[in-house]
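Bench notes, afternoon.
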Amino acid sequence: MDFQPISPGKAALRIIAALLLGVAALLIAVVFNIILVSLHPALREAPQWVAGLTTHSGMLVGSLAVILIVSRGRVSTYGLRLPTSFPIAAIAIVSCGLSALFNGIGWFLPGEGLSFVAEYSFLQTVLLIWIYASVAEELLTRGLIQSFLAPLTAYGLAIGKIHISVPVLVGAVFFAAMHLMLLTMGIATHTVLFVVAFTFVGGLVAGYFRQHTDSLIPAIVVHALFNVTGSMLDLLWQAQG
């Protein structure tokens, strides 16, 4: 899809609007969870996997609500469609390779690090981390935010022959910033900053394939493969420990 050139001022306003839409979706998610807890007070003492399920369910509800409003029902323009292409080999190599690299570096960080599977059974990990979290977080970041910024696709920066557009960059920054909330959970600052860097890179990869396939599906696969690789390496690390 071709877009008319946008002035720097209008581009900045659109970026601000995209970030506000993302925050609005998260606020809806918070309200969703407050309502759930008020209806079922036992959720306050529920296991971690239940908290993860409700959190990502709220994110799905919030993101879909905002997308429906902003797109006026034309959700296909926000990535809810089949991809025009699906370079699965490239997706797998890049996603698994970068995830393995970051997780390998993470093993040598001081402290206990951050385990993605310790509080989950294997089935819970597959369903809630590999699949459900990937869908919910991609719908918010690459679905809502990146798609809203599609008119700015021509702008960005070049890394060699690869063009990283403004929508991809902003989506990745928002995705990475979401993980700063780990600071409220008592996790070491250096570990959180490492996770932020890791998710920023993952966001760039997911956003790149979202942009070049016109669909959220490849981005979800990228996200899932990052999680799968991290979980498998984490299990391996625990087994050796």
